[in-house]
Structure formats: C-alpha cells, structure tokens
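Lab notebook, page 48
Experiment: co-folding of the full assembly
Goal: obtain a model of how the components sit together before planning crosslinking
Operator: M.T.
Materials (sequences as entered):
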Amino acid sequence: MRLPSGGRIDRSKPLRFTFDGRAFTGFAGDTLASALLANGVHLLGRSFKYHRPRGLLSAGAEEPNALVEIDRGPGRREPNTRATMVPLVEGLTARSQNRFPSLRFDLAALASLAAPLLPAGFYYKTFLGPGREAWHRRWEPLIRRMAGLGRAPEAPDPDRYAHRFAHCETLVIGAGRAGIAAALEAAEAGDRVILCDEQMEPGGRLLLSPGEVPGLAALRGNLRVTLLPRTTAFHYGLQNFVSLAEILDRPDGLRERLWQVRTARVVLATGALERPLPFRGNDRPGVMLADAARAYAARWAVLPGRQAVLLAAHDSGYEAAFALQDRGARIAAILDLRAAPPLAAAARARGIEVRAAHGIAATRGGLRVTGVLAAPLRPDGSPDAARATPIPCDLVLMAGGWTPNLALFSQARGRLRWDEAADAFLPGEVAEALTCAGACAAGRGPGHPIAAIAAGALTARRAFVDPQNDVTTRDIALAVQEGFRSIEHVKRYTTTGMATDQGKVGGMLGLATAAAASGRTVPETGHTTFRPPYTPLSFGTLAGRHRGPLFDPIRTAPSHGWAEAHGAVFEPVGQWQRARAYPRAGEALHAAVARECLAVRQKAGLLDASTLGKIEIVGPDAAEFLERCYVNAVHSLRPGRCRYALLLREDGFLFDDGVLARLAEDRFHLTTTTGGAARVLHLLEDYAQTEFPALRVFLTSTTEHWGVAALQGPAAREMLAPLVRGCELAALPHMTVAEAEVMGIPARLFRVSFTGELGYEINLPADRLPELWEALIAAGATPYGTDAMHVLRAEKGYVIVGQETDGTVTPLDLGLGWVIGKAKRDFIGKRSLARAEMQRPDRRQLVGLAPLEGRAPEEGAQLLARPGAREAEGHVTSAYASAALGRPIALGLLARGRARHGETVLATRLDGPPQPLQIVPPVFWDPEGKRLHG
Amino acid sequence: MLLIACPWCGPRPEMEFRHAGEAHLARPADPAAVSDAAWAAYLYERSNPRGEHAERWRHLHGCGRFFNARRHTLTDRISATYKPGEAP
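Observation: model returned without errors.
Model output:
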C-alpha cells in the first residue's frame, strides 16, 4: 500500500510496468520490489525445491526469494534478477519464475507435501544403494523438470559491456554513514578516492531519513572522488586488487562495466545484514526482515502491511515497528524472545502489546500470511504450541539481530574472530591494507544470542534457514545426526548457504543451528568460506568486449585474403586461421584434398607455410648454444646448409621439430612447429638466460616477419626459376638455403620439403608474400591447404609433433635416431635417453599401417594383437585416403613395431568389429628419396 | 591479481608474467656423470613447501627476462624478487 506522502520517490513521474502480464504503475525512484509492494503484490516467486510461495524477505542485495525474469526484448531476457535491485523504468516487463502452470497455483508445490521424502542429502542418498536405478528412471527426469532457477536466455545479447582499469589511494566499499565519512576523510587528505555502493542511491541506512544524505554533496563536488552507485565490489584479489561491477543501463546500449581497481588502501563499510528468525512457516509471503519493512516505508512510502506482528531478538526491531506505526501501520503485538526486553516500556507507552519470552509456534495463511500463533517459550527456548494464542496480522517482522557483512573481508583472506559480547563474527587479522568501518567492524549490538535462537528451533517443523534452497533447521539437525561435523560438509550436504544469496540471509543461523545440533558453540563450529562473486554477476560483465571475433586474437597468414576470395575452408591452428583446402565450386572437401595432393605429386602445389614459428639466433656463441640445446650436431653444419632439427625436454621426450639453417658462422634461421613457436622460444630463452648465461647469443622471434610460400612438386624449379635473381636453383641441393632476390624482393630461399617432392620454401617479408603467391598461381601452381599437407607428409612417413607424439615419445621411438649428433657430450634430454627404460625394445615405435580392406582406420584407434585382446599394443596416430597411392594409409605407434613389419594387427573401430592392418615401414611414397633430390 | 616487481622493470600486474617453476635447481654440469636416481630427482622432485618458496618467473610480456621471487605459498605475499645469480 502506497502512503500518501513521503519517501524518496518522484510522484510527478509515474511509470508503467507489468508483472506476469498484469499492468501496474509505480514512480521514479521505486525498485521493482517497492513498486510491487505498493500495488499489493506480495507473492513474487516459488522456492527451488518445494516450490513454496515466497514474497519479499529483504529490501536489498541479499534478497533470496524475489528472483524474477526481466524481459527487455530479444536477447535481453535476464533471469534470476533480484526485484529489490531493479530500478523501475517505464515499460519494465517482469515475470515470476519457478512456477507451473502459474505463480498462484503451482503443481510442483505438491512436492511440499512430500517434503519428508526430500530430506537433507536427498541427492546423495538416491545416488547410492538401491535407489540408483530409481534415480535414473524416476527422480532425475522429475527433478530436471522442477529444478533450475529461471530460464537461460537463448538469443545473443545485443548490448555492450566495458572493462576499465583504475588506480586510487583509497577505495571505499559501501556508501552508508561510515563509508561516506571515510571517503570524505581520505579525500581531505589528498587521496584519489573511489566510493562504490551496490544500491541505486548511495546512503545506506541514512536513506531511512528524509532529505539529502549528509556528506554526499561534498563528495560529488570533489574531483578526486569517483562516486559509483549501482556498483558492487564482488571480488577482493591479492594486494588490494578489487573488481567492481557497475550497472549502467545506458540508452546507447552500454549495460555494465567491470572496474578492476588497484588501490593502496581499502575501507570496507559494508554494514551488517539482519538475521531472520527460525519458526514454523517463517517463509510465508508477508514474513519480512523488520529493517526491510522499515526501509520500504521510509524510502519508498510503501506500507508492506496494515497489521504487523514483530518477533524480536534485538532492539532494532522496535525501531522498525515504531517507524511503521508512525506511518500508519497497526502493531498487533511484539513477541520478544528475551525475558526482559529493554524497549518494552517504550513500546507499551505507544500502546503496543509486548509479550516477553514469547515466540511464534506457527504462521497461518496461504499465499499471504494471515496470522501467527504466539506462544510462550519453554525452558529450552522452543515455543509451547499448547499454550499458543492466535494473533491475526498481514505482516510478520523478524528482528533476529545483525551479522557484520564481512564477505569481502574474508575474500581478502582476513580472519574472522567470534566476539561473544557482540554475538557475531568480527574482523580479525588481515594482511591486506584494509580497514573496516561502521557496522561491519563492530556489528550493531547484541540481542538474544544466536546460539539460543538456534537451540530453540531445532525441532520446529518447516522453520527455514535458507529460504531459496528450502533448507530447514531440521535438515541441518538431520545432517549433524547423520555424522556431518564440519560446517563445510553440512553446507554441501544440506545445500544451506548455497543459494544465490550465498548465505547472506541464513548463513549465520545455519551454522548456529549446526552448532546447537552438535552440542558445540558457534566459534567451535566455525564459518564456511566466502567466495567471489559477492553477489550474482552477469557473464557479459566478465566477458566485456571479448566476444565473437574479439574473444581471442585471430592470426592470419599473408595469403589469407586471397584464400578467402578463392573459397578456402579454414581451420584454427592455435590462434592461426589456416586454409584447410581450396575447394572449387561444387567440389566436396575430400575431392579437393585429393586433387590438391595429386597436383603436388604430378606438377606443383603452393602452401602458405607462414604460420611456422621462426627464430633468428645470432651471436658469436650461437652455434654452441644450439649445440647444447638441439639433438643435432650444429658445429658441423656449414653456412648455407639446413638440418632437420629436434628439440627434446630434459625428460628425453620430443618437444618440437623444425629446420635449422645456418646463414653465417654466427647466424641461424630456425623454424618451429606452428603451435610450438612461443614455447620453443620460451624454453630456449630459459636456457640462454639461466643455464648458459655466459654464452653470447640473442634470440629473436621472426615468425611474423617472414611470409613463407612452400612450392612443392616436380615442376617447382621451372616455375620458380624465372622469378629468382642471384641464385642458380639447379645448384641448390636438398637441405640448403640461399639469400636471393625473388621478384626483386630480398628473400631467403630454402630447398626443403615436407612432401617428399622437389620443393622450395621461399621466405619473403610477410607483406610482400601476396605478390609472389599470385605470380606462382599464375605460373600454374595449385594452392593446397593443411589437409593435403597432412596427407602428403604421411605418405612420406614424416611425423607431426603432437600427432605422432604425445609427450611420451622419444626420437628413437620415431626412428629418428639418425638426427642425433653421435659425438655430442650433452644436449637437452640426452641424459634421459640414456636411461634403461628409454632403450627397451618393447617401446612403442612408429610404423606404417596398410589396411587389408578398403577403408582407413580411425585416428586414435587402439591396436590389438588378436581378436578379443584386453590390452592395446599401440594406437593409430594418422590415417588418410592417399590419392597418389589409390588406397588408404595410416601411421601408428606399436610395441616392438619395427621388428614386426609384415605382421597383421587389429585396429578397433567405433562403428564395427576391429579391422586388420598390415604392419609396414612408415614411408609409403618414394622410399629411395629420388623425387626429393630430383 | 598479484603485483610483481620485475627486477628490471618494477612492479607490474601478474598477467604480464609467466610462472616458471621452482628456483635454484642447477642443471648438473655433467649430466652423464649423474646417477639415474639423482637425475630423476633433478627432473621431478620439488620442495612444494607450505610457506616461503623460491620460484622463477619470467616477465614474458615485458622485458622477457627470467628472475627469481620469494613467495609465501599460503598468503601469496612476495617478499623479494631478484635477478638470476643474485641473493634474495
């Protein structure tokens, strides 16, 4: 009910909105929650487990019940939004969640009647023992239909989200009385100050008083102060690195902004959270935290009820009751758990009946509370239902005392210490430059002890501790009875504190209940861990601009534009986009690959190999450095010559391969695999800087400097020769390098091959490569992609690091022992290769596999010695249809493989019985290497 | 996110760095002279302390240099950073 005057709303600006399709009106300054209450709507949602009707419990960020879906159009449907945190805007469309078929009549709420069947640990119990079958058949489908919170949006989010870094001397979190004072003081001292507050209007509990919030004007006028309303500090990282989520909802589509703030000091002024009280039916709509009801009346001029009963464990409840009475509500009674309530006389002077040492035995009502059963307390603190008397009411206020809000303090790895006098956990030691101010530092004074409150409610029925997850005092008592002692285990078993409010509402009551049930004190029981985020956070805020094409950097080869224009199909290789194949119009991918392979074998093909990692290694000790790192003999490599080079890890397993070219005595050009470029440079830098710091050598990544066109095939030389000046191609044998001009551009010309054909890898400055590319295409070269490249190299038995290797493969396993310099004293991994285990003859070795029937095996298939064998002897690493050979081929690693050529093994298949393969040498094409050296 | 003081560049955010394992593990000068057990220890055995830990970092997205840091594994507090070959 809206009061005729007062509140911090602008009555000159009415706003229309809908909830579940019904039209309502509120005012500027309202939240969705206050506007609904003003229109008499109390039933706002259904709980997670039992689908019990629920209304507003709070007026702030801790709201566990009033989770609604906000629909702002396609792609802008946001579930699980707390109605208390949504500013009302014109045309707002909100819907309730977790109801079927309607909010007022919910079939699943029948589960509530079956509540004894869904006890604490229900999930765990049904997973185990004889219930397992029933779980799959009956429970899982049922629970999947009922459970879940809200509907995830399906359309892409059209809005924008921003990220910003900021530095300041003082970050103040919470703009209530203490936060404003701290910000003013820091600003006076000359600090750059950021003051953030999660609510749409800063002020905290100062907003309970009418008029301008004291101190805010001074802060707004201070250029050193950044005041951020609707901004939640949700993560407290090491060394005062705090993340803030600011909600902007700007008309230009900028919705939220992530602030990452590094600050010299933090002042936490996060206040305290009012505790609910446990009694039967404490979750009915109309049962509310006392201070929340006061806030609705004071800030939004809304009376949440006309006739209220206060259940008090703390004096603050009286202040709330008095405030509501002043705004026209009738306080039917104050029931106080304490024997001697300090404010009883003041209440009676206002004509309010006060019953000391009383509690609530139960609430009455359906979708809204209609009354309570007031009962005197027994000696154990529980209400004596036999002596209960009914009191009609439409609002029940709970004043359970206050819990300092120390979630962020805990995230900062601060220790909480139990303070008996304050009846609360208070901030203890913390290593960060962090101070607490106001109610989060000291609490708001003790009331009836939380331990006594919990002890009195252990046997109550349906006394909810965690309203969203439907956890009752009895559930917690049952978990303790079943042997759970650690509060972290009790939490996981019962799910108390695991709802979206993260235990802000019921966390303290939950652990006090566990303490009471186990006969321990609250500090003996301890508290659960507070984890980020402090409140729920949108994925958009975290993702910022990093979505779609900006999700991860995309690297493209110099011929990318040409490839796109000519219909290439691309595949990601790390961050690179590489052309897989260049299918012609109407050509299937596999047909294109076969055509490209044949073109290389018969004439010449052109591959953009620019993605290969390249490292320039320079210095008087460059050769010595490489000699110590790579397995190859490097000193004996003459300028102008190349070697196939292998790099191991110290454990002896293959790490990367490439071509090592010596350009001059003190200069090398080294290639790495496309994916290995960064880690190879990292490893080499490590050895250069930390193991061999005396060697004079410099390593420079030239990956993006050089564009590489790989021209491969019997016609390669005649195609390239007309473009080259300063080098006689015919005089350039296999595995050599020359510096020359190609089309007038200074180039490094490599005579190397990854196909088994006569071939060149022409290195040009990357921006000039497209010119050469188009010239070679014009000369008749066929562009080929990575798919053809894979087939061609497999036909030749060339391995790919990461395909034939998996971190457990040595050069000897691959038959690459010939690469290792025989006379070398040391290189990375040499000592490991000398271990007996690495020399065993039954290690898995590279073999060729020739299918005895028509089709290629599946890559990854296990190799079996005989049908029904239980243990694999190896696996298929590569398998392709070979166009040049007219049959499928495969490579694999097989135990004792080299000694088994001619034998047959079986390769498992996902789609049928194992398939026989003949073990053959791994080189299928031109084993003598005539074409290579042609 | 840690603030790490690169000995060459000064304090920089953690995202500029790459962790590089335990510090002060010298590669044997003559690996061939080392027993299998001692070599395995060099490769795989790490101190993994609860407390002060000397470890290597590289200022990957900065000067590219490797350096050493002393970090407390419980609090993540870095009490010193120093160049290779220097004492903390």
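Interpretation: The CA atoms of residues 511 and 579 of chain A lie 59 Å apart.
Next step: discuss with group before ordering constructs.
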